[in-house]
Design a protein that fits this description.
Length: 644
């Protein structure tokens, strides 16, 4: 639970909160212990901007310490290059590497970093400071463009040192009330982001200092949110049946206090996209949630179809099934286009695969509900591609944001529905189950104007910047027109032989996978060159392979390296069709959209560029640099296929 800073400081050792390299300094110039010189925080610095080797620097001597702060590498931030009680006889003999402790220069470069260990402090070129009292003792609050800190005196020392330091993006709220400054923020504790409340007293209750404190708090909020509007309004859907069933507990214990600290307006409903919830279970869930409905399959879709468009976002605490329902609920509205443009769909992980979270938060942070909550509060709007999937016989249409699967990949997903309780391990079990029968599936696949040169696709990905995604433009449509009236552009085209716009894949197929995001699960980056809003379906047609090759592919899946396999046909297209061409055995008659089963009959899939809006603190779908490095090696100067 959240605590005041006083409680936290009392319960945590100072060694935990402040790296020793930052607070233990040479007490006398005679000390010659091995290792880099250490630096200290002083309560009053006298500074002088200078040039050292032609680069901006700053010596700053207080009463007992002198430091030389220099820019490090390509950073614009000044950090100590030397700290000691005397300076003249040390500068000439020590290299820059000797002078700068790594703890002082290797800092968290982004708010996503949550490595274990004590929080690190960085030196900023410009601090905005506010003297305060904490527990009746003089202290100081300060922030820069990227760091916020609480400085306190330690024991009998008169020097202020950091008691808490975190990225300024982690600040949720700052305000002045009743002559006190209240700050709510997220800070690292045991390697995890945790909620902390800082309560500080304004030393002088006179109007001038209260005004100064109010302006300081407003400046901190501006630095924390920049051009994102604080205090958003959210509709939150919690699925207690997704994954391992922990979503209600996660929301109540970890997430609700964060939303409240950020002064967000939240309306919470318990829904299930799988089955009707038992009334007794819903009664129990009242202990966790603000509002609970006895729900049924498809309830999330119904909520989205009638949701007032006054919310900034609809948040799903679930797996990928609930976002799928929300999107299809939007698609049924008379004002569908307006709903997609005004209300973002934002995931918080609570299911088995959580692919939506993985793609917008990154593998490292995708399973951290607290970080996903921060993304909902602080993320900027980002447009994503959707795809319509239309049954050719009935013209019934559903919309997907993640993937469409046929063959082995659909079977391992839908075929392991009864194993959701074990989490994402069920996908590996499903793969191994299908591993014993790798015969081709009886499917015909036609692709409209495919871009199938894999080397060219990879080079385009490496050499071109990500698309600049703007809100979807649905040409020729009234903004209140339902999406299904905007019929897919190519659905009436004849894909028979002779139409040069359509190409039929003429090899055996183990599975068909059509993707709209890079990751389909943590262990499988199937579409590693897919970018947000690039306007293409990324299509994989996998030929039957040996069992040995398929087994080796499991270890390469998380890195996206199956992309380079010769039997792994990868292409980009705006539309495709899949048709069963012969009867199949039970258990193989499966097509799936975003992990949801659809009829086993011919369908047409088409991309809708930038139709979906979400929030992202990164502004792009996250693809590891490790894949980019491998792609560079295998495409320069010529394409080098992967051979197991």
């Amino acid at each position: 639970m959240a605590t005041t800073i006083a409680d936290q400081v009392a319960s945590l050792s100072h060694e935990y909160l402040v790296p020793q390299e930052l607070v233990q300094v040479d007490s006398a110039p005679t000390q010659t212990a091995p290792g880099p010189p250490r630096t200290r925080f002083a309560s009053a610095w006298s500074t002088m901007p200078v040039l050292v080797d032609g680069i901006a620097a700053m010596p700053r001597p207080p009463t007992d310490v002198v430091e030389v702060s220099r820019k490090w590498q390509d950073s614009s931030i000044l950090r100590p290059a030397l700290s000691t009680t005397t300076i003249a006889d040390q500068v000439a003999s020590l290299s820059h590497e000797d002078l700068v402790p790594q703890e002082l220069v290797q800092v968290d470069s982004a708010p996503t970093q949550t490595a274990p260990g004590p929080p690190r402090t960085r030196f900023a070129s410009a601090w905005s400071t506010m003297p305060v009292l904490i527990d009746g003792i003089a202290a100081m609050l300060r922030f820069s463009t990227d760091v916020v800190e609480v400085l306190r005196k330690r024991q009998d020392s008169s020097i202020l040192r950091p008691a808490l330091s975190t990225h300024v993006n982690h600040v949720l709220n700052a305000e002045v009330k009743d002559r006190e400054i209240s700050i709510s923020l997220l800070a690292l504790k045991s390697g995890k982001l945790s909620l902390v409340h800082v309560e500080a007293e304004i030393p002088d209750p006179e109007a001038a200092q209260v005004k100064q404190a109010t302006e300081w708090a407003a400046g901190l909020m501006q630095a924390a949110y920049v051009d994102v509007q604080p205090r958003r309004t959210f509709k939150i859907l919690v699925n207690p049946m997704s994954g391992k069933g922990q979503a209600p507990k996660i929301f109540d214990k970890q997430l609700r206090p964060i939303f409240e600290a950020a002064r967000c307006s939240i309306d919470v409903t318990c829904v299930s996209n799988r089955l009707r919830l038992d009334p007794d279970l819903c009664k129990l869930l009242n202990d966790f949630l603000l509002s609970v409905d006895t729900t049924h399959s498809g309830h999330g879709k119904e909520i989205a179809a009638t949701l007032p468009l006054t919310y900034d976002a609809i948040i799903t605490i679930s797996g990928d099934g609930l976002p799928y329902e929300v999107i299809n609920g939007f698609a049924e509205r008379k004002d569908a286009r307006l709903a997609f443009q005004k209300v973002s769909v934002v995931p918080i992980p609570g299911g088995s695969a959580n692919a939506f979270s993985i793609n917008i938060l990154g593998v490292k942070d995708a399973f951290e509900p607290v970080y996903a909550t921060l993304n909902a509060i602080k993320g900027k709007p980002m447009q994503l591609d959707l795809a319509s999937v239309t049954m050719m016989n009935t013209r019934q249409t559903v919309y997907g944001f993640l993937s469409v699967a046929a063959g082995l990949m659909a079977e391992l997903d839908i075929g392991t529905e009864n194993m959701r309780w074990i989490g994402e391990t069920r996908f590996i079990i499903g793969f191994l189950r299908g591993f014993f029968n790798l015969a081709p599936r009886n499917l015909r696949v036609t692709i409209r104007k495919p871009e199938g040169d894999k080397a060219q696709v990879a080079r385009s990905f490496l050499n071109n910047p990500p698309p600049n995604c703007t809100p979807a433009s649905l040409t020729g449509a009234d903004e209140h027109a339902p999406v299904d009236i905007l019929r897919p552009s190519f659905i009436d085209e004849d894909d028979a032989e002779g139409n040069q716009d359509w190409v039929t894949f003429d090899k055996g197929i183990s599975y068909v996978y059509a993707g709209l995001m890079p990751y389909v699960a943590r262990e499988l980056m199937e579409f590693p060159v897919k970018q947000a809003c690039d306007g293409f379906i990324h299509l994989v047609l996998q030929e039957p392979e040996t069992r040995s090759t398929m087994l080796k592919g499991i270890s390469r899946g998380p890195r996206g390296e199956t992309f380079f396999l010769e039997s792994h046909h990868y292409m980009k297209t705006r539309a495709l069709r899949v048709t069963p061409v012969a009867p199949t055995i039970k258990g193989r008659d499966i097509f799936a959209v975003d992990g949801e089963r659809i009829p086993y009959e011919s369908f047409h899939m088409e991309v809708h560029t930038g139709l979906l809006r979400t929030f992202s603190m990164h502004g792009e779908l996250l693809i590891p640099d490790s894949f980019k490095e491998v792609a560079k090696k295998r495409t320069s100067p010529e394409w080098v296929p992967l051979k197991y």
